[in-house]
């Protein structure tokens, strides 16, 4: 070995290969520094600066003179600033990330020899980035769009990236079509309008011209495209991958993440308003939950098909516009993903976080899915354009296991590799390729035969069966939302050719849907449609994933004004906090508010103009005659109650506030209590105040209050009161 590292060098330094254990935090520590208030400001080359406020000038105290270009400190500051931006991602530009662990619960050695899926003693660090697809980096979070769900597992065998979405299928079958679908969906070329929207001519023109997109656009018009939270979305690998076991057998596999909190969405009117009222809604929600210790979790599942069964289905299992229905291929949940750490710095940990579908570890492989194969080329290529050829050396991207090879140089290379050779084979036998036993990635010996031609296999040509399956599987509320989504989207298309043709296309899915949309958008009402096979797949409806009944991390506004009832207020605040919800006190102004008996006062978090009902999951209004009277005369307060009601949110009120809610909603079908009992009607939970006159009455009231909280919390944990929509009571927004 003598000579590989010259003796003189061996004495003075040591080779740094990176940590061997899978601890990403330890690894990042090499490149992380804290701002120490005692540090002094320096240039990038380490020289302390005497001022950061004045450019060197030819001036005098009474006369501003010209700036001198010779000032290296000022030049450095401006030049660094001028070059701060890197290209945003060509798709999925807007997103945010968090970090955590993947824990395997059920090993699957019969399917793969990848330790990340066989070793239950491991905790694999992960980085997860959620994103929208179409909008630019500064666009809004709550737009109607597919959401990215990209997971980087820093395994001891190298990085494994599942670059998925919250929708299990895609618009196209062949990667060559990707530039077209994205050009058509992004802002139009002549005026760069609209931002972050599918509601425009070109998007729907493309959809009509590509029948293979039919299944996917049904998902995109469903509630999946307006999630309540990143924490309440499923994640799907979409493409078909493979698992290889130690006997050399191969299975096809699809990967899924299902949230512990269930799959929940905003309602459309709320999503639209939030895009203006709080464009960072999802980003903040994720941050807030993690900061409050309510760590989001997902179950990790696999759907598996043995290689021999590849052709046993009436769809092609390599077609990314198709799901594998659960009744044919059930999901088996084998692990858990938890996010428990927010980024320290957005740029270095989120903007520079780079995923590649081609990054898999031994025991996991690709398939001939023609979308996946194109993606395997694209992601690496796009990172070179955004981050440069050495993007994998960036702290957030580098693996936690040793990296050693003879790739060298390129812009911004910063690993210093000591040694006298940079090629293989070399006279030292240095860094030889590994054997399978040593953990090398060995390609699965797949027999490949075919005719070189630009063709698609026949089974890829059924474009409507699963679009119908999806529609048939929706609940009545979900169907209603899809209908309204089409009506909204096509209304935004000015070209009659576009919306006229799209209405006809809908008849390939469901005649009644097509007819209802046609009536709304003013198109020719189709009389005939493609026969619907009538089959259903329950797991396609998000109502199948209600999740854990919890109010943890749910935001609940408490509306009060001077003279509020301190007992009800304090009880609600304490109960919400101990259930890990986020109580937010909202009042007509942010000045301190005094309780009815003058015993206490509170500092509201927000005032009614600055904060809106869209930003919370539920509202609670305690009694107190004066407080309620003030709120009842405040138009914004009344709007808060009506809007929350229209958005199907749980509303709780006690004492005098019961009449306030009654007045704001003004719907005889929603009954509120007139006695001391706890009442629940269409998600409005009320309890009139009782004045205890004896001990037994006090005990009774305490019981009532507990009953009230139970009903109120139950409503919040249900996410929304869908019965209100089914009864047509939610039109007051
Ligand atoms: Fe992507 N996609 N994609 N995509 N994609 C990118 O890579 C591409 C597709 C997805 O948080 C880009 O780093 C092609 C399907 C996510 O950083 C780019 C095709 C699915 C993210 C790219 C697809 C996705 C991207 C842009 C068709 C769901 C964000 C920036 C063959 C399974 C990852 C980047 C992050 C990002 C190409 C289709 C998900 C250009 C060519 C299907 C979640 O490489």
TrEMBL record:
Annotated GO MF terms: catalase activity; heme binding; metal ion binding
Alphabetical list of Gene3D superfamilies matching this protein: 1.20.1370.20, 3.40.50.880, Catalase core domain (2.40.180.10)
Residues the entry annotates as binding heme: 379
Catalytic activity: 2 H2O2 = O2 + 2 H2O
Basic and acidic residues biased stretches: 20-41
UniProt xrefs under InterPro entries: Catalase, Catalase_AS, Catalase_clade2, Catalase_clade2_helical, Catalase_core, Catalase_haem_BS, Catalase_immune_responsive, Catalase_large_C
Enzyme class: oxidoreductase
GO BP field: hydrogen peroxide catabolic process; response to oxidative stress
SMART domains assigned: Catalase (SM01060)
Record EC number: 1.11.1.6
Cofactor: heme
Active site, UniProt feature: 92, 165
Domain Catalase core: 42-432
Keywords: Heme, Hydrogen peroxide, Iron, Metal-binding, Oxidoreductase, Peroxidase
Pfam family, one: Catalase_C
Record-level GO cellular component terms: cytosol
Residue segments, region Disordered: 1-41
Function (record text): Occurs in almost all aerobically respiring organisms and serves to protect cells from the toxic effects of hydrogen peroxide.
PANTHER family xref list: CATALASE, CATALASE-B
Family, similarity comment: Belongs to the catalase family.
Protein name listed in UniProt: Catalase
Organism, as annotated: Achaetomium macrosporum
Lineage, uppermost ranks: Eukaryota, Fungi, Dikarya, Ascomycota, Pezizomycotina
